[in-house]
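During the first year of the project, the team set up a workflow for recording each protein of interest as an amino acid sequence followed immediately by a discrete structure-token representation. This format lets reviewers and collaborators read both layers of information side by side without switching files. As required by the reporting guidelines, we include two representative entries from the current panel. The first entry is reproduced here exactly as it appears in our internal archive.
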Amino acid sequence: MSTASPTADSEKPAAKRIEFDDPHGSLDNLQEAEVTRVRTLTGGWRWALIVATAATILLCINQQFSLRFFIGYTQLNTEYFYLLIALMLPFTFLIFPGSESSPLDRIPWYDVLFFVVTSGAAVVLMRSVRKAAEAGWEFGGAPMPVIVAGLVMWFVLMEALRRTGGWSLLLSVLPFTVYPLFADARWLGPFRGTESTLEQATSYHVLSGESLLGIPIQAFADTVIGFLVFGTALMMTGAGKFFINLAFALCGTFRGGAAKVCIFASGLLGMMSGSIISNVLTAGTMTIPVMKKSGFRASYSAAIEACASTGAVLAPPVMGATAFVIAQFLNVSYADVAIAAIIPAALYYIGLFVQVDSYAARHGLAGIPRSELPRVWDTIKDGWYYIFVIALLIVMLLYFKRESHAPFYATALLLVLNQLFSRETRWTFSTINKFLEVNGRTFVELVGILAGCGLLIGAFSMTGVVSSLANDLLRIAGDNAFLLLGMCAFTSLVLGLGLTTTACYIFLAILVAPALEKLGLNKMAVHMFIFYWGMLSSITPPVAIASFAAAGIAGSPAMKTGWESMWVGSIIYFIPFFFVLNPALVLQGDSPYFEGLGLMALAAFGTLFICGGIQGYQAFVGDLRRAGAMEWPIRVLLVIGGFVIATPGGGIMPISQFQVTSLGLAILVPTVVIARLLMRGQPLAAGQLRVR
């Protein structure tokens, strides 16, 4: 953090203004790896990655805009997918070391061998996939060289999964990829399905459009590449500095202003990056020290940042990679998914904002003096073109419905405006190389995870077990939607502890979503529910990666920060149930906008009381410690009443919205009246003024 020099004042010297440098200046924080040990390529390998990334982006542009780079040759989608795999997957073994003892300053011979073997297998399969489509090889009959290349690809994909996502991801996916080989075994029970030979399973996995070349890789090839390019370009043109200074200018003076700035800044950055870890490592380095200086405990500061950054994958217009996979699963446009996420994302950040406000009020944490904050107009004047570019992206997504084209147009406009109006972040040849390198590292990781997880989908598609499993789940739950939702939430949270958000979503979208849909629940709401719960694993111990990353910045104990994150974010664990109960909250239904906004207002109103009860300070009432022995009964009633108010009625609920709201008010109104009467004229006792 840097401070501007004091400005002169007619009466007295002005306080130093808080002004942040670009948090993405080094760009090291844009790496998305779930593991912490990664190599930075140098020399010829670095240039190879840069060239491969440039080729990947150009191939994507050629495919999306139908530019016909290949004269006299029309490329099949499957050939295009394999080209991307051939360009990116081999680098997994160069960037991600094979073990803790593997060197980071050089590339061992066995990783080079992996690189060569993976490239060879991908090229063989790419050259075979057109013939496979004509001859139906994915169902058997493929020649032996193709089978051998397929087996090699199967093996290297599992190793790529291990390196990018860790042993937990590999051990979760590998048994299911080989499951078709023994799918008819009696001991499998409800998982029993159609069995395949090794040759049949290999052919289906690597040649069909349902497995390796299925939904995850299709999402990556069609839309993810463009949005990653846009997000990286945005950060490399100084948007991080703009968003953080804007957050300080708008929210810094509020009660507990430093924490509210953290929520607002992380939300803004997350809307553009769609990444949890890079959000923590960029925004957190700026906001956590200011929060600590303002009086927040180190662990609480880290918890706020972790929760705020976790919402990044949920916040449109640029959500996490999982959102693109959702669009492919549901066969809808990405814009539809982004629209559906607007209210859940808003409720997520409203919940955090109110939680922090109640905490700050209870502990007497003031805002930052206006004299120390950046000026709103100066901040906007310096970065107006970011707002213009984001507006273009949103218009192209929502009005023109050009989701595959929108990020490329927005990136082009951004770079032109940046070159014209910014001296500090104007790009040079070395900037372009760094831009390609950063994108390449992200592409490599995502291809390693998405391609490997694609085999999970292929295994269940091959065996035909999904429909029967849905019936078995319904039978276990007794057709009780609430029980099945609870089972799904618990399973998603547990799986999310060991899997990436995308892998967790894919797993449950195959196994659990069909059962929930058979109960008549809205498809979009069901998939958002699964996605949301998988996302929450980032702040839930014992593997709370966002919390642990923030703890490292704050200098607080990792596990304590994880539990603190759950407490800070406790309200956000309720929100997924709200939009499953009434899909208007994901803007689905007959009159989704009017009904959705009404339900959002009720949910926000209920959240005000839930957070008041959790933190012990109720807005318009005061510090509940002044209620004496009645403090905890009042807090419990506030949480219950707020939760009832926020819960949508109708649908699968046995009572109407009017009845639900009336019940909530019947709990809250007497509770608030009693609290005000008890607290009238009662000061805080000396023992209640505890240290923060």
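The second entry, processed by the same pipeline in the following quarter, appears below.
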Amino acid sequence: MSYYHDPKMEKIFEILKEPKSLEELHLPGVFVKDLILKIIANHNTVKTSRINEITGLHWDIIKESLTELEKDGFCAPVSGGFLFSSIEYSVTKKGREKSRTISEDNPYIGIAPVNYEDYYLIMETQIKNRYPIRIPHEVVENTFKEVVGVEYAKESLIESCIIGKGVFIYGQPGTGKTFILGKMPDLLPPLLIPKFIEFGGMVIQIYDPDFHKECEEQPEDPRWVKICAPFVLTGAELSLNKLETNYNPNKGVYETSPIIKANGGVLLIDDLGRQRDDHELILNRLIVPMENKKDVIYVRGIPVIFHSHFIPAFSTNLDISIMDEAHLRRAPLHIFLKTPKLGDVQEVFKRNLDAIGEKYDEEVLKRFVNVYDDTENGGEGLQPSFAHARDVAQICQAVRINRDKDVVDREVLDEALEKHVLIALQRMRIDIAQVMRKTRSFRVRTAQINEAYHALLKYGANKISYESESLIVDLDDSVTPVQLVEYLHNKGIEVDRIDLIAESEKELRRTILEYD
């Protein structure tokens, strides 16, 4: 037994033995016969072994259903040997007409679904008393072995998983928000889910291989699957419609929403505030399933309750004020990912070079850090970023191969840095996220010119030039004279006067052309 396969999971495995009769299957006999008939009609002639492979049904159930279909004149055996698994069945004219009729109502062909009541009972058993969780130390260590630094963030994520409460993470682009949130499911226990559910003769899809990763141990009943705690990631493409369960007429299934797919795991709304639909509407849609741990879908107009016991995670590059109090109560833990430390960025760069098998000079690591070091220390003063570390390592590989070199040296790195678009923009002092905003030009009069110059550089000035007894400073339009005075005063710099002398649009395209 282990954290990922505990006594409760073993007990459920014992319950989920493969059904050997229609009574044990808990599905209407008509539904099963219709499913098998559609398979025969779709193939025209098909072996019973293929029917078993598609439906996951026990041989006894297949044999019983085929006997009744044959007796009703819908199919007939046409060839085969002594073994039942080798017998081929062909559809009759009557069977094809019948198949066409039932396919118009329900075209689903695939593995036999699980009865809705069975799903609800098994899921309730797993989710009940799931939290708080005691996460073993070795699980924590293994989960975060690839994560450099950010110890405070790791602690919050661990505590989020222990009590099953949501988390709000924010910070500058490239600080590793999505990466570290993607580690959360490894802290959670696995889950047993049905691949498909039958309700009122219709089929609802639960299992999604895009989000559900299968575990090594699997139950005897092939209609169920043991998965790692799911991590359902949605981003700027998320819309209100995608948060609903929708019917797919081509497949004949209701495709469940991210809300239901994330049950037992983590639902991440990434890039919050960049969705086409108003993010307030999206957050409001999530309140009920976050609060009640249940969501309702409609199958032919009938409301059906599904479990939605997920941990909500919200990530944004914008300010924390993007969420109001009602929403933040559902994600009470927060993480502000600060600017990465230079040593951590260097370590991530090194790890990425190692991961792709690149050899490099030791000087390359020092040169990479120099890009982000303060100008006072001889660096370029760019914004450190874990994303840059990953991307530049990969570009280095491309440049090294293209230059027919054996190792990544300083020349290769410098060329890779020049080709990274965000680094190029930073070198031009262009913040791509702020391009659509205006620039304000201030005249700052002070006797402490040099001190003010260095302080304003750290404040994020786009440009600074000298005048007699004053500085001309370009800053984003969100900055006011009062804020400037307060900031400089806190730095011990006395200001005689600050004037707003100009306001202009930022021009990214022209700047790039001039730079080239």
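For the second entry, the following points were noted during internal review. The CA atoms of residues 202 and 300 lie 9 Å apart. Residues 386-402 form the longest helix (17 residues). Both points are flagged for discussion at the upcoming steering committee meeting.
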